[in-house]
Amino acid sequence: MAQMQSGAAGKLSLPALLQRNATQFGDSPAYREKEFGIWQCWSWAEAEKEIEALALGLINLGVNEGDFIAIIGHNRPYLYWAMVAAQSVGAIPVPLYQDANAEEMAYVLSHCGARFVIVADQEQVDKVIEVQDQLHQFEHLIYLDPRGLRKYDHHQLHEYSHVQAQGRAAYDEWITDLKTRREKLNYDSTCVMLYTSGTTGKPKGVVLSNRNIIESAKNASEFDKLGVDDEILAYLPMAWVGDFIFSIGQAYWTGFCVNCPESADTMMTDLREIGPTYYFAPPRVFETQLTSVMIRMEDAGNFKKKMFHYFMDHAKKVGPDILDGKPVGFMDKLKYKVGDLCVYGPLKDTLGFGNVRVGYTAGEAIGPEIFEFYRSLGINLKQLYGQTEATVFITVQPDGEVRADTVGVPAPDVEIKIADNGEIFYRSPGTFVEYYKNPESTADTKDPEGWVATGDAGFFEEGSGHLRIIDRAKDVGKMADGSMFAPKFVENKLKFYPDILEAVLFGNDKDRCVAFINIDLTAVGNWAERNNIAYASYQELAGHPKVLASIQEHVETVNASVAQDPMLSGCQVHRFVVLHKELDADDGEMTRTRKVRRRIVEEKFSDIIGALYDGSLQISTVTEVTYEDGRKGSISATLDIRDAAVASIATKLAAE
Q1: What is the pLDDT of residues 235-291, one digit of tens each?
Q2: Which of 630, 542, 621 is nearest to 586 (CA)?
Q3: Do residues 260 and 433 touch, judged by C-beta distance below 8 A?
Q4: What are the domain boundaries of the chain?
Q5: Domain 283-472, what fold?
Q6: Extended strands (E) in 139-282
Q7: Based on the number of CB atoms within 10 Å of its own CB, is 296 exposed (0-12), middle (13-18) or buried (19 or more)?
Q8: What architecture does CATH give domain 2-259+266-280?
Q9: What's the predicted TM-score (pTM) here?
């Protein structure tokens, strides 16, 4: 692999890596997909033929070099093949979020001027057809699953397998053209365009080159010693840079196998069956899995419950040290081995983490308690810090130097500097080319020397050289008394509790902090069933007095913890409200990657924030919502506002 990279870097591209893999790893599994309960498998040699057939079919359909091809759907080998087939013919793949509504799709498709769209099924076909009149460059739509589409007008609509069949039939006609286009590709050719989540405005198209993708994939693979025998589960949105680098970049560099689950509903079962060695999930997935574990333990018998808590308490004390190879006493090791037999091993197998050699989380900060829970089980979970514009990797955590409160050291070949205001800047081989059709934003983000402004605030620890992220630079502020306001720090502590799904803290320029809380319907609903508490809706359960009392207890426990941090002790929550609805991407309150759009939430619920600060005990509010079919409606609610005890000055001083 290294020989090819150093000897022919100028001509290196993902299609070139595909050709190499088909030769070197021809019989090794490249893709698996579970369909109708059965795992289907394609070797690298077979995958190369599938991609070649589609590429020939795309040329036959009229795809030109430089065209944009949008790809929409859940993780399937065929859609990953579509991205590499697009690159093979000199076109640029643009993956979109499959749960994006028609309006969001229309913006991206129009902005990039996609002539061709490849989708998974009828649902995505319908969304594209709905906005077709807004897409002046759109010409052809290719679909994978033909169910429900027989009676559609097929003048611009083509079945994926038919495009491949036409490509195979026209092999002699177009193979020379395909090879010519492939040969033109080099390190500076555009590999993919990925759209940002748009937390502060319209999504921007991030242009990434083959250099960006391959160098980032190579460096990260070598850092974690990934190879052809590794396995991953590809279940994250294909439009997200993390999925692209893991499921395409690193897969093509190392030759490891990409496994696609049957559906979101079977993902956990499929995860257990595959038992990946390399695993990535954003904090929300780890939070959900931990919630599931805690719910099951609440339903277990007394003996199992006591055994679980007994061994987990021991794991928290010595598990991370054992994982990092640090010295641990003989009796503690022996007790941990017994715990591994009785609790940790079965639990890891149940979660699908029994074979995980390297696990990562990123996207936003993970709660330290959640992070330590997984590491205490012996799972080598690490944090990385990255963004789309960096082709993921800015910092990584070396084995033996993994901590919950930092994001590690600069990734290989990455330089980092901290501005006077605390903002983090980096430059690396993964630094993006540009924002498409947006030179102003490109210039604002990347300077002429290649330094990129992350928008995050942080600092390097003295001695360890590890980077600590405080929060988004735009979200870090000051309380009225001048103390630091860093909402993410408190929100992550609150989200450790299984019954809290989301938390949003307010307090910039104020004399105290207040918070919105979303309950986790699965966890709280399970509690209600166990206690024979009837409820008819999320809203009713969120307002139940016992639920409010439980959330208040969590808030006050977090306050005591926050008070121990001299820098952030002013961020304790004085008052809170449990919202009557979940924050939702369809309502514009979150991005498709589940990041809170703070400014929108602040504007939308300004009446509730006002009540939190003016001393009101209740607030009546009406909120607009979007239903699954796209219709708008509204829900009314009267919410109780709770005061939370904060740690006293004496407690703070004692803690310090």
Answers
A1: 999 999 999 999 999 999 999 999 999 998 899 899 999 999 999 998 888 888 888
A2: 630
A3: no
A4: 2-259+266-280, 283-472, 477-655
A5: Rossmann fold (3.40.50)
A6: 140-143, 157-159, 190-195, 205-209, 231-233, 257-260, 278-280
A7: middle
A8: 3-Layer(aba) Sandwich (3.40)
A9: 0.80
